[in-house]
Amino acid sequence: MIKHSNKISNAFVFLVAAFLIGGCGEKKVKKDFVARVNNSYLTKEELSSMMNNESGKNFYREEVIRNWINREVLYQEAVKKGILKEENYNRIIEDEKKELAVSLFMQKYYESEKPSYEPKDVEDYYNKHQDEFRLLSDSYYINLIDFNNEDDAIKFRSIILESDWNKALNIIKNKSSIIKVQTGALLTAFQIYPSSLQRIVTDLSPQEISIVLNYLPGHYEVVQELQKYDKGTVPPFSAVRNEAEKRFLADQKDEFLNSYLRDLYSNNDIEVKN
Q1: Residues 6+ apart with CB under 8 A from 206
Q2: What confidence score (pLDDT) does residue 28 get?
Q3: Does the predicted model carry a pTM greater than 0.90?
Q4: In order of start, what are the domains of the chain with their CATH numbers?
């Protein structure tokens, strides 16, 4: 299993940094923003960064914006109530500063010590850890694309019916109307949003392609179910290739970290008292 100790996600780093630098001085009025709460602005660049973070990949743009607004409203209310002046808050901030510094330092360390590996190494890792990939709930191996233009969605679906998913992607890959693409994604029913899309996916047969779906304003989706895998089964490597690579690299990072810590232990004066 992946060890999560002492790891901070990019989303967490972004959140801590936002709290540490937010509110320092009066902010100038901005014009190029996607959301605003009083004098706090969410820019297009910040939104893009949030959606590219691991925690934002399974969410739509509207959800990410709504989550940002919720956090900002609550944060500003906390400021009004004097939370930032409390001793407990400042103690936590000091702890988070250390965590943030460690996280940024380790990111640089990993970048300079990137492991070299072959695709076969990832497959070997999967074969040795197959039981860790056993599904805890029914899951669906799908392709999904989301457009903001209905005509492009219809055209894309027509191309799929005449060829296949990858060829269709190559033909329309430069379309600015594409909001989101998921190719070969293994998702549980709970990870498929909205619930109306979830029902469509669960009703599809293997290799079946949906009609153009319009469950959210400005979203025109086409989904293809490749295969359904029941709870308790171990999906084939092809279905979990990306997840296997993530776990493989996580283990590699753990090995790097443990090795580095051993060196640091030997070069520092460390004492523990009972």
Answers
A1: 225, 226, 227, 228
A2: 56
A3: no
A4: 10-112 (no CATH), 119-129+236-266 (no CATH), 135-229 (3.10.50.40)
